[in-house]
Write a structure and sequence with these properties.
single chain; 10-stranded mixed beta sheet; alpha+beta; Immunoglobulin-like; 2 helices
Length: 220
């Protein structure tokens, strides 16, 4: 009977231990990337700013690689402004993505909590609705959140990354040009030398004809 009670107590302790581990695991927050706004409304031809934000959850981190995917037929990235979360921020822009990296200057330091890595300026080229998202879980250009440990463990949970919906309305305003007024000439353009030649030749021909007529008259 006593042995049965001991086994029951032992099983209760073991069960309680595993329940505690399960609760701790579920309460821990995973690291992920998000934007400082989930929706953006803008007119075509106008620009807007959106922040790239990391949430480290319950861990301390040393760096982040964020690859933001965008539709280049609707949006055009412009300037990238460094945020305040990391002391060092790098960026690179191509026709399909915006890459932003944030890292600590001293390997002995780390960052905790949530903060803006950088702010990206986009211009709406035409009307449309597109989604900004993070490239994650791919073999190349993979977004990462690096934990402050000896193995530099990537602790990002791609499924937790958030997106932003951008809606551009209207059409881009193009500058209008005023057509130049056509000028109708009131007189024929002067031809210079030819005009002067005609002025001299006509009186001379008249005098020549008059002289010839006078000679014929005198003969008769």
């Amino acid at each position: 009977m006593k042995s049965m009670k001991r086994v029951a107590v032992y099983l209760s302790v073991v069960l309680g231990f595993f329940l505690l581990l399960a609760v701790s695991a579920t309460s821990a927050q995973a690291a992920f990337l998000k934007f400082d706004k989930s929706t953006v409304s803008v007119n075509s031809g106008e620009s807007f700013d959106i922040g790239i934000v990391v949430d480290a959850g319950t861990d301390s981190i040393t760096s982040v690689d964020a690859y933001v995917l965008y539709d280049s037929t609707v949006l055009e990235p412009g300037t990238v402004t460094n945020g305040t979360f990391f002391p060092t921020v790098l960026n690179d822009i191509t026709s399909t993505r915006v890459y932003v990296a944030g890292l600590v200057d001293d390997p002995a330091t780390s960052k905790t909590g949530s903060g803006t890595i950088a702010t990206v300026s986009f211009k709406a080229l035409k009307a449309g609705t597109v989604t900004l998202s993070y490239n994650c879980g791919q073999t190349s250009e993979n977004s990462q959140v690096i934990k402050n440990d000896i193995n530099a463990t990537d602790i990002i949970v791609c499924g937790s990354n958030e997106t932003a919906s951008v809606t551009a309305s209207g059409s881009a305003v193009e500058p209008t040009s005023t057509p130049s007024a056509s000028i109708t000439p009131t007189e024929l353009p002067k031809t210079g030398v030819f005009d002067n030649l005609v002025k001299v030749a006509v009186p001379g021909m008249i005098l020549l004809l008059l002289g010839g007529a006078l000679k014929l008259f005198l003969k008769f």
